[in-house]
Amino acid sequence: MTKKVKISELTNMLQDLDIEALEGVEIEGDIEIDIGGLGGFDPNLAHALGHETAQLSVHLANISRLLGYPVEQAFASASMSMAGQQPQMQPQDKQQIPFGSGRLSELLSAKLEVEPAQEWTHTIQEVTLGATSSDGGSRKSTVTIGGEKALPYYFDAPMPNRNYVTMDVFDMPIGMAKAVKVNYEDVMGDPGEWAKKVVNEFNADMVTVHLVSTDPMIKDTSPREASKVVEDVLQAVDVPLVIGGSGNPQKDPEVLEKAAEVAEGERVLLASASLNLDYERIAKAAINYGHAVLSWTQLEINAQKELNRKLMKQCNVPRESIVMDPTTAALGYGLDYAYTNMERIRLAGLMGDEELTFPMSSGTTNAWGARESWMKSSPMKDDSDWGPREYRGPIWEIVTGLSLALAGNDLFMMMHPTSVQVLKEITQTLYGSVDKETVDISNWVEIEMEVQ
Amino acid sequence: MKVNSPLEVYKYLPGDNCGVCGVDTCMAFASKLLDRSGQLNDCTPLLEDENKDKLEKLEHLLAPEIREVEIGIGDKSVVIGGDDVLYRHKLTFFNKTALAYDVWDTLDEDNLVERVKYIEDFKKFYVGEFLSPDMIAIRSSSNDPKKFADTVEKVMENTELPLILCSFDPVVLRAGVEKAHKRNPLLYAATMSNWQEVADIALEYDLAVTLFSPNDLDNLKSLATSFNKMGGEKLVLDPGTYPTGKELNTTFNNILKIRRAGIGGDKDIAYPIMAVPLTSWLVHKDTVTASYWETVLASVFTIKYGDVMILHSTEPYAMMAELHLGDTIYTDPRKPVTVDPGVYEVGSPTPESPLIITTNFALTYYTVESDLSSNSINSYLAAVDTDGIGVEAAVAGGQLTASKIKEVLELADFSLNEKTSHNTIILPGLAARLQGDVEDMLDANVLIGSADSGRLPGWMDKNWPPEKE
Questions:
Q1: S-S: B232 plus which of A162, A234, B84, B227, CB 3.0-4.6 Å?
Q2: CATH code at B6-62
Q3: CA–CA separation, A246 vs A256, rounded Å?
């Protein structure tokens, strides 16, 4: 279910959906175009792409306020005035309520003592992706994940590195859910421009290049041809890369070998080594050209141990070059397994299982496979109205990713710009790096609301 | 729970292996008590007078670390708390996070009634059941006792859902309680400044009460200890939900500390926890932004130990995600991941009915099954043994292959020529690449179904019955 496998299938699936999606286009009333808070998004482009796109832009702008655009100042005053109304409970005439013999006149004083967890004795391996010129690469900056000594955001031990997001770029136009597609229509077919867009406009920390077209059932692009796309993207952006194949287990090893060769020294993450393909070739390519390997298994902690062991012992991949992808299942489609699998892996690592002390990556994009993300309305007639899918898709991707962040996932492979922004905001807030004015919650009960 | 071996439980059981509880031996029953799949009153001999001491002892030993609190009455009442572990794989989490959506007493009557109805009626189908909101929180935004009492009364006329009555003013709170106490509502909230008056109300009416101590866990524990001393056992703890910034990290860790202490045996703080994602609306006024952030907060505290939550957004995208995540986290991880491989009948299939292939991953199977049955598609549904892996991943990983499909048909003694008139197999859209292999191996016609089984009804309209060769 990780993306390298799913993409080739996804293409067909989503092309099918897209036709349906276009049939379902609805323009709902007059749209007020307000995309002032949208960073690099070009309003003219929004117009050019048409009404429906403009509507999405408004949605995007709305969410962008989360990132602290000045829109918020209007609201600050509201919370300030709430502060002024903090209820000072007057000591009331206590005689009027003569209840209970056990009534206390003074509060019993207590202290809550909570010890840091004792059982977390080990540190998760730190893995650095990308290499700058001083290390033989051409990236402007690198990304380091892992290094945890506790579950994420826990007081027990500070988390050394924040979560990072790598956004998907494909080497050919592919079908995708409409809510995602509107963001990429102008760059589809040009991976370099696509990569620039996710980095410059959507704040991606990294870029994942999917060499989908190499699948013999799609275009059967040769490894040499495909590696040119990798070169293009390396030229176009200066963030670290993830390079994925098509998911074809016969073809991927040679595709990734060639890609590893042209990206020599850039310390990319090769996605992926798995038990159902020739992982040794991928491991060797990583070692020879200085890259890291994504160790991908399917929701099975013991398989993850086995593959990691083989990568380390049989293939001699250094510990600082292994990242795990234990598989992401979407909210409502097995997230309970994915969540618990990751949580168990992380806890086992912290407690000293050396075969599991690696940072983790999630194919959060899988959330777009959930029907709640893309279907126009519920297939179940007794369901309540699902509302506009433009809002459902991003929240599905966010909640899927956030859940796994809490299970210990470090790196997120994602697709929708809004999802990326909100996921970054919440994970960095929990991480403790987001400064905001303190909100007075002492009288939240009396907040005045508009009727929705 | 104070015990971790069946032997420690066994010694208080009758020991005569009478079987009344449904399992053969008292030792087996002890194991069930320990993993909380059995209940003490399944053992009727234990309920007899002569065993009173043993029963009490067992009740004490087996009580969950976090107290359970019931709110509401009748079928729709909810129980919160009751957890014994910090991680769901260690056992399971009990009593799904109760989601309360708010109404307030400055809403005009029409809007109030409409909102209550909407909350009560909202439902989202999910593998054989509907997910729906659990409670309604009534806030006094007017701070006027009369208004609050009238609103409470109006809400009660329109819903049976359990209620949370919210005001920091004891006079207002009491006015609401006088109307609603028979519904066993949860009170919100006792604070450092009103605790005596609120305790009086809670004790007088024997109601559960929330203790609110924003970002001060010592005060929260002091309140809990004091209420307990006064005879209040039904407590819910709210350490304050700060919606943004560094304070949100503090809130996260406050809740974590309360639960860790409670599971660790600190009885004075071992109560259900409340989170209030609604505070998102203190910083965001735009509906989409506030709803998104509220959903994000609700997600964090569904996963990390919130037992009851107060929410505002009734946007479907928010409610659907919140309801699904509660279900996700509270699903018992011990339940099987798979269904038995085989060919199942959906409805009343005839030789003209389709044979549809899916995997034995329980979620996939039940999703397809409900899509077929709810649309009255009589069919044969084959659950291929993919080791509990879904279609897409199983095709990629080699667990769903032509020979695996052949295997399941043989296992079920399902002969295409005998059972069907069409000799046709429908593969999942995501398994399209198996088409040629399956045709060769089974000598059957193969059609590629929709990528999502929710689209099968439309697909059937276009593609079924298959054209004769």
A1: B227
A2: 1.10.15.40
A3: 10
pLDDT digits (tens, 9 = 90+) for B67-121: 999 999 999 999 999 999 999 999 999 999 999 999 999 999 999 999 999 999 9
- What residues form DSSP beta bridges with A296? A325
pLDDT tens-digit map of A61-101: 556 545 543 333 333 333 333 333 444 444 443 333 334 44
Topology (CATH level 3) of domain B342-463: Rossmann fold (3.40.50)
Domain ranges of chain A: 7-107, 127-431
- Residue % of chain B over a pLDDT of 90: 87
Which of B316, B371, B429 has its CB closest to that of A384?
B316
Asked whether the beta carbons of A154 and B256 are under 8 A apart, the reply is yes
**Which residue from B141, B246, B248 is facing A448, i.e. has the nearest CB?**
B141
B182 touches B210 (CB < 8 A): no
Residue of A nearest to B174 (CA): A97
Q: Are strands B424-427 and A411-414 parallel, antiparallel or unpaired?
A: unpaired
Q: Sort out which chain A residues have CB atoms less than 8 A from B245's CB and list them.
A: 429, 434-439
Domain A127-431: CATH architecture, name and number where available: Alpha-Beta Barrel (3.20)
Question: How far apart are the C-alpha atoms of A245 and A255, rounded to whole Å?
Answer: 7
Residue B172: predicted pLDDT: 98
Q: Which residue of A has its CA nearest to B107?
A: A451
| CB nearest A331 (choices: B88, B314, B324) | B324
User: What interface predicted TM-score (ipTM) does this complex get?
Assistant: 0.89
Task: Give pLDDT tens digits for B240-286.
Answer: 999 999 999 999 999 999 999 999 999 999 999 999 999 999 999 89
The answer to whether A435 contacts B246, with C-beta atoms less than 8 Å apart, is yes
Work out the minimum CA distance from A39 to partner chain B, whole angstroms. Answer: 16
| Domain range list for chain B | 6-62, 69-329, 342-463
Using a CB-CB cut-off of 8 Å, the residues of chain A touching B324 are 331-332, 372, 399
Whole-prediction pTM value? 0.86
- What whole-number distance in Å separates Cα of residue B352 and Cα of residue B112? 52
Instruction: Match 């990751």 to its residue by tokens.
Output: A342
For domain B69-329, the CATH architecture is Alpha-Beta Barrel (3.20)
Probe site for chain B from A112, A154, A162, A297 (most B CB atoms < 10 A) = A112
